[in-house]
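Fold it.
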Amino acid sequence: MDGLLATAPLTRDFFDRPSPEVAPDLLGRVLVHGPVAVRLTEVEAYGGPGEDPAAHTYRGKTPRNAVMFGPPGFVYVYFTYGMHFCANLVCLPEGSGAAVLLRAGEVIAGVDIARARRANGAAHVEGARRHVDRDLARGPARLAVALGLVREHNGIDAIAPSAAGAAMLEGDPADPATIRSGPRTGISSAKETPWRFWIDGDPTVSPYKAHTPRRRSVAATSVREAPPSS
């Protein structure tokens, strides 16, 4: 996997396309942040204002989603359900408001650091390591944790990164014959839109979960949850 880290960075033009075109092309690419690198195996595309009811930008620009309206190739990090960060890569020209959610991948560098970040009671049990390593970036929240992406990284440039930024590398693009697509997972709006893309048979791809409405008490009905999408 060391050879993947020697590949060239992706260009700004790569992301200056509609998110459903960019998303499958990201599979097999490598996102590096500090000492940790992840080979992407699963992503989801989200469209722009008025186009995609599942996207954060559907109703327009807000302080929360402002990075999605910036130039392509920047990282949009959001906080959801009061506990998780998720990372996206902005697509289309500035002002468009589209992005690709990074759902899962394989940690190919900095595995020990990713393990420490994801540490739990079973993380260092001998015999469970293979299972744990498969799961290090298996899901959007786990991927963000493994890479160390948090709120302060919202708006960093993955094309021309600073010392503390991220870098999106060419990697080894997935064979188109291995790429599958289907409905996005865990969302309530536009849930049948087939904009989830993954590498068939890769063990790091997260399980598909259809949206299940959460039951709330009367006291909680005035609190709106953030959607688990980009």
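The mean pLDDT is 87.
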